[in-house]
Amino acid sequence: MKHKAGFVNIVGNPNVGKSTLMNQLVGERISIATFKAQTTRHRIMGIVNTDDMQIVFSDTPGVLKPNYKLQESMLAFSESALTDADVLLYVTDVVENPEKNMDFLEKVQKMKIPVLLLINKIDSLTSTASPQGEESSQSKLVEIVEKWHSLLPNAEILPISAKNKFGTDMLLKRIQELLPESPAFFDKDQLTDKPARFFVSEIIREKILLYYDKEIPYSVEVVVERFKEDDKKIHINAVIYVERDSQKGIIIGHQGVALKKVASEARKALEKFFDKHIYLEIYVKVDKDWRSSQKELDNFGYNPE
What we know:
This protein is an alpha/beta fold. 36% of the residues lie in helices and 23% in strands.
């Protein structure tokens, strides 16, 4: 049997469920998936291997109009996913305006590779419908499909619910059919292209996204300064960088309570992720306006090349 392998890149606007879909397809929790928009900042690979196949999935930041250099870098990650895909997954949902971010959509329209347009969260159509409203939810879905078909006439359209795993098996089967014949690009035991330190910083950042409001989570970057592992435990020192002294105070909280909560929840998640005892120390430092400094963004790894 011939071996198939290829790059399957996931793109779309913020908060449509790209990271949830990625985690379902890969079968591991690789991308942060929270209810907040702009959660993913990097392009993150998750690799699915069988004896005769390797699918290299990429999750990307949500497409947006950049307001500062960090968002410019996030958009560059998304646009880079259009250049090296064998199959493109364009994710939308049942409430999004199909004509949002038409500049990006026009680039997708011109692509010559297979594009699978995924209408996510279709469970929300049926969950809000009364027994008599089932027909109206179906007609709503038909309306959404027709609109997208007019915008991306060459795309295959698949309704899914990533959260409920509805349609994901069918999607995986279709991806397998579309993959080109090729040897594997990565070792067959490799799950991702990111190092362990990356997932430490992402898990800590996820807890910040969950526990702080407003601008705070978007002003934060997490850097792992020490990662020392042995057979039974991992010692980790991490720094949370913020842009303002006032933000530092909010992250730490009264008598350090807020930071202790983040550290405690992050440690539990890290122990589950690595299946080892975790000793975690977190510090908070101010790096003024880091989101607008190209030098700092390069230091933090926001260079799509």
